[in-house]
Amino acid sequence: MPSDKKNAYILTPYFLDGLEEEMMSLIKPGWQVVEPSLPVGSKQERMVEIHTVLRDLVFQSLVAGKKPVSVAGDCCSTIGVLAGIQQAGINPNLIWFDAHGDFNTWETTPSDFLGGMPLAMLVGMGEQLMVDEVGMTTLPEERVILTDGRDLDPGEQQNLSHSKVRHYPDVSDLLKAPLPSGPLWVHFDVDVLNLEDLPAVSYPAEGGPSSRILRQVFERLAESGQIAVISLSSWNPELDLDGRSRDLSLEMLSILAG
């Protein structure tokens, strides 16, 4: 996927605080790469450094009049994305495509996995160390749509039911539902797709929309003209032996990016 004049592609080749060297093959002319100087410290301290560099690149892209397109190895990178959006003075509505809810807290998580918490973090729930350190402020729950989210832990389901986050279990609902007004930030975790279409994911979940349905939804969002920022959480390159998951993910991303 080449760079272009209206989109600013930003690659964060990390899964949490670990470098994913396979992702470096995605770099195209004009892409920016998050290259932090990582401290010797805790996982979250190292992730803060990654998110801070990403925040600054998102901010710089927006003030230059471009649409940031973030490609990263995990959903926690959205903390840096939102911090950059906010620094640019934009108050977005977020549409979060994901097989999972990412809405756990330390009290509800069965695994202590930070990657299962970022959407909760964005709306001010649970763990907030990285949010505070990167200078992000809470995104109001009513400005968030989670779609699909077919694989929810029991406590996560309870957290969602008590929140103002709108949950559309069927992605095709977004073909007809009214879109929020104002700028949109679309987050696309590629594991939202069904495994027949996109099998190379680290946390597979049965079910999910076909690539045909998701393509239609993404076309509608792109045609709205409201998308200000896009973020993608990657397939697992080590599992993508035939490149099929990579190709489909980048195809879907190109639809969103216009």
Topology:
Elements: E1 7-12, E2 14-15, E3 18-19, E4 32-33, H1 43-63, E5 67-72, H2 78-87, E6 93-100, H3 118-122, H4 129-133, E7 144-151, H5 154-161, E8 166-168, E9 184-189, H6 211-223, E10 227-233, H7 244-257
Parallel strand pairs: 1-4, 1-5, 5-10, 6-7, 6-9, 7-8, 9-10
Antiparallel strand pairs: 2-3
Helix pairs in contact: 1-2, 6-7
Gross geometry: globular
What is the assembly state of the chains in this entry? single chain
Tell me the span between the first and last alpha carbons: 12 Å
Major sheet summary line: 8 strands, parallel
- What's the domain count? 1
- Going by CATH, the architecture would be 3-Layer(aba) Sandwich
Describe this structure in words.
It is globular, with a radius of gyration of 17 Å. The relative contact order is 0.15. Helix 1 (43-63) packs parallel to helix 2 (78-87) and helix 6 runs parallel beside helix 7. The protein has helices spanning 43-63, 78-87, 118-122, 129-133, 154-161, 211-223, 244-257, and strands spanning 7-12, 14-15, 18-19, 32-33, 67-72, 93-100, 144-151, 166-168, 184-189, 227-233. It starts with 6 loop residues before the first strand and ends with a helix. Helix content is 29%, strand content 19%. It has 258 residues and is α/β, with parallel strands linked by helices. It contains seven helices and ten strands. The chain has a single domain, classed as Arginase, Chain A. A hairpin with a 2-residue loop joins strand 2 (14-15) and strand 3 (18-19). It has an eight-stranded parallel beta sheet, sandwiched between helices.
